[in-house]
From TrEMBL:
Keyword vocabulary terms for this entry: Membrane, Transmembrane, Transmembrane helix
Protein name: Holin
Keyword Transmembrane included in the entry's annotation: yes
Transmembrane intervals: 6-27, 39-58, 64-90
Length: 101
């Protein structure tokens, strides 16, 4: 699949949400009381869904029609996936793997 097609589907003003989600994930990881790191992608997806749906419904369209909600859900899933994938890529490139020598 062409990445340009995926990226072009996300509204340009929502790209800052990728950075926000990435930072939110790092913040959650640093909280000593938060031990369920497996929940971080789910929390990021939930935050992305909430922010994107509200933004699309209030700011862009002015109403919550089914097409606005579906479009916002698709965009929010892509945004959260990019944030989580970006974190994994950074970890793979910067941290030594257990099997590497």
């Amino acid at each position: 699949m062409d990445w340009n097609a995926i990226i072009s589907f996300i509204r340009p003003e929502l790209f800052v949400l990728i950075i926000f989600l990435y930072c939110l994930g790092l913040f959650l990881k640093k909280i000593p009381a938060f031990t369920a790191e497996w929940l971080i992608p789910i929390i990021l997806l939930g935050a992305s869904l909430f922010i994107t749906i509200i933004y699309m419904g209030v700011v862009v369209e002015g109403e919550f029609t089914p097409i606005v909600i579906v479009t916002a859900v698709i965009q929010s899933v892509i945004i959260a996936a990019i944030a989580v994938f970006g974190n994994e890529i950074i970890k793979q490139l910067t941290q030594k793997r257990k099997f590497d020598k």
